[in-house]
Amino acid sequence: MKRTIFSNQLLPWLLLAPQLAITFIFFLWPAGQAVRQSFLREDAFGIKTSFVGLTNFRALLDSPEYLNSLQVTAIFAVSVTAVSMGTALLLAVAVDRMLKSARVYTTLLVWPYAVAPAVAGILWWFIFNPTVGVMPYVLDVIGYDWNHVSSKTDAMILVVIASAWKQISYNFLFFVAGLQAIPASLREAAAIDGAGPVRRFFDITFPLLSPTTFFLLVVNIVYSMFETFGVIDATTEGGPAQATNIMVYKVYFDGFVGQNIGSSAAQSVILMLLVISLTVIQFRWVEKKVEY
């Protein structure tokens, strides 16, 4: 490995300056402000501020609405991760078996990733709209009365589908790359020994995909907890009856709509610590089962 030596000691810092500035301005500074405001209580106009210690955190742990938000977030994150990764893996395996048309299918499947979360939410909101949507009509034919405006289950299904659809393309790209990196000779040898397609997948392909799967698991959990705000806001706005009010949306609603800055900041701190803890747990214990 060749080591680069800079003649000017200031040059490396100048090269790192843009990235350091972005990290400080858009992550470290807002995170620091959130931590500071979580220990404060201020009025809606920001005129009077008082230090209240851990009062905001204690109030959250005693709040049924916040505890419900924790439960909803857990169900939502697990569902989005499972649906997006499972569907992406299925599509990647299908494309990997193609020879002539693989590039065409790959290009078509990547397009949804360019769609903004809010646009994806509105798209699926129209598709499942009880009045003008196509899917409620189809479901009514088979005897299911769809209405995500009043049904908690239907609302959760809608936001999970919209959020997962947006992430499938990202997962698909990594799974395709991982499948193409697996030597064909391994699967051919297993086929010669009499192993069927299903056994070859679970005994050879999937274990060798474990590094890719582990990486996508971390990315998808972070995505479902942070980047799905636009989907929730465009489809259900946390309803009905708080059924889809995930933690990141509650941070926005309490802070910007309810003007409860202290509680909103405390929620953002808890959310940040929760995501960091989940990531550490995954790297500490889950990664041990990854085969590199």
TrEMBL record:
<keyword id="KW-0813">Transport</keyword>
<keyword id="KW-0472">Membrane</keyword>
<feature type="domain" description="ABC transmembrane type-1">
    <location>
        <begin position="70"/>
        <end position="282"/>
    </location>
</feature>
<feature type="transmembrane region" description="Helical">
    <location>
        <begin position="265"/>
        <end position="286"/>
    </location>
</feature>
<comment type="similarity">
    <text>Belongs to the binding-protein-dependent transport system permease family.</text>
</comment>
<feature type="transmembrane region" description="Helical">
    <location>
        <begin position="206"/>
        <end position="226"/>
    </location>
</feature>
<feature type="transmembrane region" description="Helical">
    <location>
        <begin position="107"/>
        <end position="127"/>
    </location>
</feature>
<keyword id="KW-0812">Transmembrane</keyword>
<dbReference type="Pfam" id="PF00528">
    <property type="entry name" value="BPD_transp_1"/>
</dbReference>
<protein>
    <recommendedName>
        <fullName>sn-glycerol-3-phosphate transport system permease protein UgpA</fullName>
    </recommendedName>
</protein>
<comment type="function">
    <text>Part of the ABC transporter complex UgpBAEC involved in sn-glycerol-3-phosphate (G3P) import. Probably responsible for the translocation of the substrate across the membrane.</text>
</comment>
<dbReference type="InterPro" id="IPR035906">
    <property type="entry name" value="MetI-like_sf"/>
</dbReference>
<keyword id="KW-1003">Cell membrane</keyword>
<comment type="subunit">
    <text>The complex is composed of two ATP-binding proteins (UgpC), two transmembrane proteins (UgpA and UgpE) and a solute-binding protein (UgpB).</text>
</comment>
<keyword id="KW-0997">Cell inner membrane</keyword>
<keyword id="KW-1133">Transmembrane helix</keyword>
<feature type="transmembrane region" description="Helical">
    <location>
        <begin position="70"/>
        <end position="95"/>
    </location>
</feature>
<dbReference type="InterPro" id="IPR050809">
    <property type="entry name" value="UgpAE/MalFG_permease"/>
</dbReference>
<dbReference type="InterPro" id="IPR000515">
    <property type="entry name" value="MetI-like"/>
</dbReference>
<feature type="transmembrane region" description="Helical">
    <location>
        <begin position="12"/>
        <end position="31"/>
    </location>
</feature>
